[in-house]
Amino acid sequence: MEVLENSLEHHAMGSCLEFGNRSQRKRRVINISTLFEGAICMKSKSEFFGWVVTGLYLVAIAVLAFWKRDAWSGLTLNEIGDFLAGAFGPIAFLWLVLGYIQQGRELKISSDALVQQAAELKNSVQQQADLVAVSREQNIAQVAAYNYERMRYEKSMNARIFFYSQGCLGVGEFYTHTFEIHNARAEVFDLQFMCKLPGNNFHGTYAVLARDEKVTVPFTFEMVDQDYSTILHCFYKTFDGRRVGFQMDLAISAEGQKMAITPMVKLADL
Questions:
Q1: According to a count of CB atoms within 10 Å of the terminal CB, is the N or C end of the chain lower?
Q2: Residue 42: other Cβ atoms inside 10 A
């Protein structure tokens, strides 16, 4: 359950980061749009100012020309051209200055927009890196959850075999120690026991051992004059087709010729 909770938590973190990325991209578009709207607004104001000044100047020139109308008849074409050049020169200079100022403003706005885009791009890269890290953690959590569920499933399909001593009987130089085998978990197939006993190579086979089923297994061996120990190898096939093997410690005491079968002690258990 803890593994599944961690997986859900990582998934929620990934969703939050993705939502944050979309919000950042939306804010970036809004900020850049605001900059360009400001540039258009300033351009409109500059044009309005230029047209107002130009209109007032032309009105003043027209009034002056009307006031001096008597002098127009005595002017030559060259003098009229000089008058027009002098009259419209300030207007041309005004529009030149306004254009230069407006160009400087637009360049500054473009530069600010590029700086802001670079900062937003840097933040976006960092957020993508965080999203990749969260996705990696999600994958690790999902793999761990899958492995945990698979381990639980396989464990539920494995057998759990116990050996219970039923006593020993001796005939001449040979003894037979009988054990009752109890399967406390899932049904298994092709169950086999193998070990090397004094004077006998034991091999027991059972086609099926159902859940909670008990069978009797006789172990026949030659009498020993000193303690004897070996390994009992056990193999079976699960319902889902896996081959499983495990080992048990088998010991025979010289005193009484009694046999004991116990689970092997691993270093991890100590």
A1: C
A2: 15
